[in-house]
Amino acid sequence: MKKETRHRATIIDVAKRAGVSKSTVARVLGGSPNISEEAAERVHAAVSATGYEPNHLAVGMRSGRSGLLGLVIPDIANPFWADVARGAQDQAAKEGMSLLVFSSDWDSAKEAAHLRALRQARVDGAIINPVADNLDGLDRFGMPFVLIGSSAESFPDTSSVGSDIAQGVRLGMDVLLAHGHAQPAFILGPKSKLARARFLRAINQHCIERDIDPASLHTEDSDYTVEGGKEAMSRLLERASKGRHLAVFCANDLMALGAILAVRDAGLRCPEDVSILGFDGIPSGAFSWPALTTIEKDGRKIGSTTVTCLFDEMAGRPEHGRVYIPCRLIERGSLANLLAGNTDRLAAGR
Hints:
Layout: H1 11-18, H2 22-29, H3 37-50, H4 56-63, E1 68-73, H5 79-94, E2 98-103, H6 108-120, E3 125-128, E4 145-148, E5 160-163, H7 165-178, E6 185-188, H8 194-209, E7 219-221, H9 226-239, E8 246-250, H10 253-265, E9 274-280, E10 293-296, H11 299-314, E11 322-325, E12 328-330, H12 342-348
Parallel strand pairs: 1-2, 1-3, 3-4, 4-5, 5-11, 6-7, 6-8, 8-9, 9-10
Antiparallel strand pairs: 10-12
């Protein structure tokens, strides 16, 4: 049976149905004020009836704008970055723009390929989370852009948006201390990443302010994945003192979820034996067992704010510098309160 190919409506079809010229259709769709109300109504009715969609590429060639923005993030599978993309998409849609989303998978070669694709698509601007912490020649992007993520702080002369990591780490350290965990262990990112250095710097500053020796704290490095967190937690458990409650602050929620799995595999319980604090606020943390206490980064706010900054860049308005979005605490069930004595009583009854 031969498959029918539906004819794609053109501006000529709209003009015939509305009983006007092609130029009149173009002027109506372009928002020209010098069109009678009756003619405009006929054109819009014809567009609706035929299903006509303007050729945005052709319109862009005439106007110098494509109506497209680009977003390059490191890991679309991480719910935090998916949230950033959603916030950016929603804000772009409010401005009548569409968003092209690419995931670099923390690979600089993929990132470069995605940026080439965005240039070829003639996007009006791009939002980029640089994979490398030391990008050379930012002008090679060839388009207005705003940076996001930790690497962006390496470029103080470029507009960027990100979470206030130092504020978020202090918030986490304060809640740990308030629950009796004066010397937690940490699961951090790879040593090659600026994000790890920023996280560790905030930890050290907090310890110094409270007369705690930072060298006394145990740390494990990992990649930012569930499996990485699980492996790092297993190493911490091997080094931990038997019978002593262990608290662990993870640099992202995927690591923290992996840490909970490692605790369970070791025959221990969270939070009775091991307390775990995450960082990101991804939705899946609410459905783990126990539900994950975490420091939430507002991914949607980051995405929407970055698009607003990008429109300013496209319009040639002054740069914003670094815009920090504050974090907030989400308390659930993975953090024991040692000061209340609950964990001691549970452990004694085992």
